[in-house]
Amino acid sequence: MTVLNKLATALERKDEEPNIKLAIQISDENDVSGIKELVENLSNKSKDIQNDCIKVLYEIGERKPTLLIEYTNEFLKLLSSKNNRLQWGAMTALSSIVLEIPQTIFDALPTILSAGEKGSVITKDQVVNTLIKLCSIEEYKERAFEYLIQQLQTSQTNQLPMYAERAMPIINQQNKQIFIMTLNARMNEIEKETKRKRVEKVINKLG
Q1: Using one digit for the tens of pLDDT, what is the confidence trace for 49-108?
Q2: pLDDT at residue 207, rounded to an integer
């Protein structure tokens, strides 16, 4: 039975439950042929099938990222897709495999950062997640942190508290000062008090 028959679209469902269920099944069974079929159908003539396939794939990445490694190039190519769901879905998939193949992801940062500049909020979120993961690896932490600071300097103020909170685990004595300075420099731009308080909380915890 083809995995396409188990997608939400095939089952005439409007929710994501069938896609998540399929991702769990494929992950549990290490179903590499199923993953291959999903990747092949990212170019299906039906946009609904494309969207279901990328959903299943990044859900697999969340559960068993090693299963997606061989399709890294396919995900990178999708970062320039005109289908917004494919673009941010591919970035989500890439973010899930950072710790498995950090050198490959680091080498692809020009493409990834470019996609973040042009992409949706979710794409930007996953770019930041990718940089934070790279910051946790000794070999890449300096350059990745520079890129992370650039993201914090230019991100939408609505996203800034979340980015600051997520970055906390990789903040240390060496990078703490520039991190706090970057957040302080943007404080006046944050209009919502609840958002501002979240950033202040991060600064106070580090301070």
Answers
A1: 999 999 999 999 999 999 999 999 999 999 999 999 999 999 999 999 999 999 999 999
A2: 82
Domains belonging to the chain, first-starting first, are 3-159 (1.25.10.10)
Question: Would you call 163 helix, strand, or coil by DSSP?
Answer: helix
Count Cβ atoms below 10 Å from residue 77 Cβ, excluding itself: 13
Q: Is the pLDDT of residue 1 over 70?
A: no
* Contact indicator for 86, 58 with CB cutoff of 8 Å: no
CB 58 within 8 A of CB 93: yes
Decide if 163 contacts 129 (C-beta within 8 A).
Answer: no
For residue 182, the number of C-alpha atoms closer than 13 Å in the C-beta half-sphere is 24
Residue 147 CA from chain centroid, whole number: 15
